[in-house]
Structure formats: C-alpha cells, structure tokens
Amino acid sequence: MTSVELPEQLAEIRNEFLELEEKDRLLLLLEFANELPALPARFEDHPDLLERVVECQSPVYIFVEVDEAGAVHLHATAPRESPTTRGFVSIIAQGVEGLTVEQALAVPDDYPSSLGITRAVSPLRMRGMTAMLARTKRQLRALAAA
Which residues form a coiled coil (predicted)? Predict the structure, then answer.
C-alpha cells in the first residue's frame, strides 16, 4: 500500500510526525497520550470485553467494534504512567476511528515504523504498537466473519 492509499487520518498523523525534527517527535507522541479518550461507561462492568495486548510491557487493553453504519471504533486503555504506550494506542484508535472494516484491514502492518520514531523508542515498544494494530485487525476479521 502506498502512502497515497493510506486513510486520510492515518496519513495526517504520519505527516505530523515526519514534519517534526526527530527529537520533537516524542513530544508529539506525548500529546497523543493525553488525547486517549476514557473508556465508555459500558465497559466499567464488563472489563472481560477488553483484550490484553500481551506484547506491550504496560497493561494495554483494546476492544474494537463496528457500528450499524459500518464504521470502526477502537476503545482502549493504557496506564497514564506509560505515556509512550498511551500515545501509541491513541494513534491507532484515532487512526482507525470511523474507517470501514476494509479500510482498517488495509492499513499497512508496518504503519508504526512509518512515523519516524524507531530511533527514539525501543524496538520492544515498536513491537507493542505493531501488536496493537495486529490485534485491532484480528478483532475486525473476527467481527466480519461473525
């Protein structure tokens, strides 16, 4: 998939990172961490609906749903004391928000590495972000098959 084919919000996020000097990209990641929305109240009584992303060092939980109009929504939680991880999950959540299932499944698996932060964060953290995207896609495939 070429960058031209990326859904608009994912291309915008990537471009925001690439327009910054490498040293400033972590600051943008922290901004994304602060933008991760709280889980909807309906999850408070059903934490079992959330799937743990075990590849992440921090406890990250996600739940993907598709509304009646076919739009994707990713709900996630990550600890405030793990801002890098929160930033990653916020990017994925904002990036897939409102996409069709087909658009979300077409996001390149290596999208996280296109943000230009691979030298600023550890390979383990990059694997965590890649795993978040992979879990999102796996949940979407399961929903589409149901």
Answer: none
